[in-house]
Amino acid sequence: MPKHLKLINRRLRHAWFTPISWRRRLAFYGGALIVGLVAVGFAMAADQAQQLNQQLFARYPWLPFVMTPTLFALAAWLATRFSPGSQGSGIPHSIAGRHLRDSGLGQDLLTARVAFGKILLTLLGLLAGASIGREGPTVLVGASIMMVAAGLAGLKRERGFILAGAAAGIAAAFNTPLAGLVFAIEELARAYEQRTSGLVLLAVILAGIVSIATVGYYDYFGRSTVTLDLHNGWLPVIILGVFCGFLGGLFARLVLWTSRRLGRWFGKDLLHHPASFAAACGLVVAVAGYLTHGAVFGTGYAAARSALEGSGLIDWDFALAKWVVTAASTISGIPGGLLAPSLSVGAGIGSALSSLFVGTPAGSSAMLGMVAYFVGVTQAPITGFVLVMEMTGNHSMMVPLMAATMLGLGTSKLVCRVPLYHGLAMQIIHARRAAVRAASAASAAGADAGDKSAAPPNASS
């Protein structure tokens, strides 16, 4: 046998038939399947938590004034005390964990403990009526599960495993495999990585198989059949693209600005007493929920689907109140994502403005508002229109969605120059590095003090 054929045969045997390679492969397959199972179970539990919240509100309309601030405070305290790193969406922590893996500063960002706390406390927040979603937390949970699998298998390409787990989480959470792939490349990696693309694709496939086997094929918001006449329908595309992109960018800027300023305003009081601030945010959510008859509690899925189907126009009070409670829930420090609430806000704005566009279906306006606002918040344009297109099963709106996406992105960048998730991730990274530098400086100062105390006294004294 020629030498080059022997070399190829040896490499194939090493890649496919050694015990180490099979152990690593099985760990990856098992991790991706577990991500799918956990994502489906998380989705079911989240739906139950929201239903219980609605049932309690329907029976006791005054209850949110007590329950919502209390559970907000409890979630913030539990997150700080028992599951540090589980606060917020989870996507910034996944990005930070991927950047900090090589330096060793992000070892505790993506762990089984953080994932477990993220799931339980997100469910607690949904029970409280917080305007949060499970999709962002599912990204962190998926990345954490794959990191555990990578550790068991002794794999070194941990950064690729984070991408694979995050993509599988999005794909299983929304039942949108293509959006999961695009999200991993555009939002987490910010570049196409050929070495990890196979891992990401395989993880999405395996998680998708579990999701389909468990709950079957479905479109997240149902199948939409609305269309938009391109000859006469550019006015809603332009107006909704610009306006919703502006509001999305304003939301992102508010969250980034508040997250930077809170520490300066409250100092160590906020660090040691996060429950008080969370309770105040919970009170804001309770008041808004009471005034809107509970419509703004939770993800806002029902209102968004109604807007997309055109079965009922959404008033401005829902859209504005949902914007406020999503901001309050996000800055409160409790675990929970903002992907699904952002989609609801955008759909609400589009539906509220649909009466201005004569001859344009209300569902089309809701879709345009949804994608423009979502992109305005995240500044992830490809993920935005692919996600909305897959969630509605509507391909006839592709070109208008792309146009609204680009208008929303451009307007958002005028308001907020830094993408929300990456801005929050950089705050985590800078805080970790600053803590290491402070610890090193303190250690060096202690060593210098010890040397001085051990030195012999001056002979002239």
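[next item in queue]
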Amino acid sequence: MNLAADLLCLLVCLTAVTCDRVYVHPFNLFSFNKSNCEELESLVQEGKKTFVPISIESQTTPAYEGDLNDKDKLEAPSLSGWGRQKLSYLKDFVYILGARFYSKLREVRRGQNVLLSPTSLYGSLVSFYMGASNQTAADLQGLLGIVPPSGDPDCTSRVDGHKVLSSLRMIESLIKSRDEELLFSKMLFLFSAPGVPLSQLFVQDLLPSVDALYARAVDFTNPSEAAKQINAFVEAKSEGQSKCLLTDIDPSTDLLFAVDVRLAVNVKQALRLKEPQEFWVDSNTKASVPMLSVTGTFKYKTDASGIFSVVEVPISKTVLLVVLQPINGSDLEHMESKLPLQSSAWLQQLSPREIKLTLPELRIEGSSDLQELLTDMELPALLGKGADLSKISDANLTVGKVINKAFFKLASGGTDQPEDPTAQKEDPVFLEVTLNKPFLLAVFEEKSRAMLFLGRVTNPLH
């Protein structure tokens, strides 16, 4: 696949300029070894054990579900040794695939807010890889970018999905490990047609990667009623936070997969301006928007062509916010067309600068269907009707929507700005940066610099 080749080229370049450690091919950090392969043989029979999910209408809690908070507590985040190396490569795989997905979304959602979670989308693909066999597994592995240095077709040429999901979960654990100013949650929903068996091993393998997992049976042959039931179920399990997960369903669906990932941050050092400020949605339309002000030493640059500026701001102990805005008369559409998202160069060579940043309060969410994204990437068959997903079910599955819902909230954790603006002495050395027109944002975990969210804000009120 071209994507896999691009990833390898990027990683070779990154390795050449990084460090003096011994080079380890990224594949070897995530692959099966000989002993793993022997264990796999013993798990073949265990993988044949199945269960049939209870109806979505049932009020009982099935034995196969559980709260994973205690499991999270057992794993203290650590970035020493191999763990650090794994994340250093994985963040690049996540970034490139996330940027590719974003490029497709922005084309079909012009003028709209866009938000996706590259880590969540990548994790969804890993989940299906773990449920796939034969050519489907090989194709998914190629899309994930973790390809072997040689083409030996034995077990050791395969990626161990458990290692990848564990590293992704490590990133999420790092977010929550040192911070009380934020809330992070991730839920996974598996909705199957009545009577369709699911592999116990497959579901058990996914459990550690999320805060909660729910599997329920839904009658998809009545699409409108199925959508209503699913939306009500997700809203109830998210305690009202996640609403209207979907609007339509293909009645031939056997399995619908949905992930809901949410991050809310109260920025301690941010002040909420007393009065709403103007935000120019376009050259003719403005809105009155609640704004935040944060001042400090932040990383900053303008691109060489003078089209956009970049500011990197720590918004908590574990999370970084990067915002890009058009400058010098440019607009968002022009900026996006010139922004080299395929490379992470726009995130590099930022310099410390004293900055007063004014930006909107944010409450932005987005939903994307991985099936549609794969179709846009000319890979419609990857999870299509011919896909070999025999490790998910011994039935011939038709996978419907693969929904990834993302939510990001940014608010002040401090106090409102004083009534008298003159009470704050202006420091002339501070560069004032005001986000009062459409801009791009990216959210990163601070230690690994893995991209959690990537999005576009065209109207903060939507």
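[queue empty]
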